[in-house]
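Q: Please design a sequence for this.
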């Protein structure tokens, strides 16, 4: 299961003539730029960056192959168990897409372009890939996302510690656009005008989504300090990063529901994905219910009564879909 920048004041206001799609994309991208450490020595940084880039390019093909092996080992059996059409899961195409995506991310890092630039240039491309894989069966994106995630993790382990945080800020762009329906949220926002209360509340929540996710994950760790997922304790750094990403993912799905005025994204995409992935990752449903409960509290604490009414029905739907009546487990 289961990073942190707020945009306030004029930063969160949309300039006249700027489309909602571009505005939301820029707000999301700013989170990456503001997290980077700019204090590295320039000359030393250039040498490290060149050698790190070369190493990642050399390792990328093998990392992609190894990542698919990990993905297949973890959730390969889910294809039969969930009666997924096996022809929809093409490991060669998925590996090819993974290779192309990471090449773009590595080149952005090599050229010292900010992650914001990568989000801007690759976001629509990743959104299209995600849409292609979810078109027939949304669960297929689980295989793609896991392949992409493991590829990044394998590469990060092979590069100097001093570069891991910087490189990971580029890889997180890739992770986010594949795990989360960001492009769908952007496209839904384009159907609202600037004065739309729905659009304004999403713009209010977007810059603090990482703060919300981090706060929820800290609470969950305190409540379940000894709980082990497939990858370790909830406090394990790798598990914690994945947990924060998952809570952000739930928030983006809520934005999509509000912007589209429909539960379709939760019903046909988020829920089937969770049912397929979380048991394999050894994430019990009680954790998900706790997260949804805390998400309801966190969102409620940041919105006025009028704004909360936009999210209330979808939060209630989430709670009922993952209720003990549907998934009766306990620790």
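A: Design:
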């Amino acid at each position: 299961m289961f990073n942190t920048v707020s945009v306030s004041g004029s930063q969160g206001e949309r300039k006249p003539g700027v489309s909602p799609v571009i505005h939301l994309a820029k707000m999301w991208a700013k989170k990456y730029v503001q997290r980077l450490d700019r204090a590295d020595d320039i000359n030393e940084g250039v040498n490290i960056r060149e050698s790190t880039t070369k190493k990642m390019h050399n390792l990328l093909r093998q990392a992609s192959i190894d990542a698919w092996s990990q993905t297949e080992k973890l959730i390969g059996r889910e294809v039969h168990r969930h009666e997924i059409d096996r022809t929809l899961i093409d490991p060669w195409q998925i590996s090819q897409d993974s290779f192309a995506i990471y090449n773009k991310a590595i080149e952005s890092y090599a050229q010292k372009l900010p992650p914001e630039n990568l989000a801007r240039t690759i976001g629509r491309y990743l959104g299209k890939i995600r849409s292609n894989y979810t078109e027939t069966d949304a669960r297929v994106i689980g295989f793609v996302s896991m392949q992409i995630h493991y590829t990044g993790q394998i590469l990060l382990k092979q590069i100097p510690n001093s570069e891991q945080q910087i490189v990971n800020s580029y890889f997180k762009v890739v992770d986010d656009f594949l795990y989360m329906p960001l492009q769908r949220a952007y496209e839904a926002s384009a159907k609202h005008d600037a004065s739309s209360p729905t659009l304004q509340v999403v713009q209010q929540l977007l810059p603090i989504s990482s703060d919300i996710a981090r706060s929820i994950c800290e609470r969950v760790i305190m409540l379940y300090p000894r709980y082990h997922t497939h990858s370790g304790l909830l406090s394990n750094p790798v598990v914690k990063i994945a947990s924060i990403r998952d809570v952000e993912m739930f928030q983006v799905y809520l934005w999509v529901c509000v912007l589209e005025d429909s539960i379709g994204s939760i019903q046909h995409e988020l829920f089937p994905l969770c049912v397929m992935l979380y048991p394999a990752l050894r994430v019990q449903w009680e954790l998900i219910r706790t997260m949804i409960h805390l998400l309801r509290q966190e969102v409620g604490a940041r919105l006025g009564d009028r704004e909360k009414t936009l999210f209330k029905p979808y939060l209630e739907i989430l709670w009922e879909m993952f209720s003990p009546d549907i998934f009766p487990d306990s620790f």
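Q: Thanks. Anything notable?
A: Residues 108 and 180 are 21 Å apart (CA to CA). The radius of gyration is 19 Å.
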